[in-house]
């Protein structure tokens, strides 16, 4: 995740660049900064304290933002290592450190506990106002907050740095409720809807100097109802959202890295469907089980078209195929006509053959391959016997 280089300013310039909410709510900001340190370990009590003097949703969001940017510092160690050290909210609060993803997740959680709708956003960042080459994958995270009937934008990570940067110096704003037409100059979300613009910019356009991009935005005519798209997206389950985000991230910025991330998201969703299917199998609902398994198989094949499957993914795929064959064999005992029974058995036979071919891509000494090949052989003999009985 990216670190933003700050430019120290004189007191007069710093005051000039302060965001409007900071000027508007000085008492609220002071209250947030004076929160007892002990509250860090009880988020419910912390949110109650921070929300107490707030009279509006914006004041509440500002108090939470002020506490977070004042209390949590950027984790330079994790940034150097290129990985997240924190694995939970407790880790962030205990260490008082985090990278941008930690800031965004924690702010979303604080807002949720305060009754505000807040979403972590991933995307690309510009360190300055000059032209840039977009990185192959999203490198930053921030938030969208729903306040008083509309979505607004905030970046608690960059808000936590002391002083102001070239962006704030040039445009006189900070990173809390920044106008979308300014926020886009150095924040490009992976999903265009989170630009909150009537006509979203492309990845290529974002790479231009900020001044050129600003002029382009001013000339653009409305072409997009982002609020409708956001509403539809948020009605999806979390698993569906992750899959949709990965796909649109790739389609928006089609790099090899984003393609691999999309494939992984597809596999993750297939695993989710398979786990749901197992519950139907236990409830003896073969129709529902077969439907979910079939979709999981289709998705895994799709992932394999995007990028070669990893060994564990091949094992997962063959497991899906074998389970589907076994379920079809079981279902064949419950149909009324021999023709339908024969069709189901032949389908099961094809799934087992696909499983056998997939297993051949694993090393010969792979334990799962040896075990699954024996399963395939045993099931094929049973199904072949049943097919011959009906023909």
Structure in words:
The strands form two sheets. The chain has a four-stranded antiparallel sheet with strand order 5-4-3-6. Strands 1-2 form a two-stranded parallel sheet. Strand 4 (140-147) and strand 5 (150-154) form a beta hairpin. It has 20 helices and six strands. It has 391 residues and is α+β, with helices and mostly antiparallel strands. The chain folds into two domains: 11-234, C8orf32 fold; 238-390, Serine Threonine Protein Phosphatase 5, Tetratricopeptide repeat (Alpha Horseshoe). The protein has helices at residues 11-17, 20-24, 26-33, 43-51, 57-71, 76-81, 89-95, 100-113, 156-159, 166-171, 180-183, 203-206, 210-219, 226-234, 238-252, 256-282, 286-306, 311-332, 338-359, 367-390, and strands spanning 73-74, 97-98, 117-125, 140-147, 150-154, 187-189. The longest helix is centred in the last third of the chain and has 27 residues, at 256-282. Helix 16 (256-282) runs antiparallel to helix 17, helix 17 (286-306) runs antiparallel to helix 18 (311-332) and helix 18 runs antiparallel to helix 19.
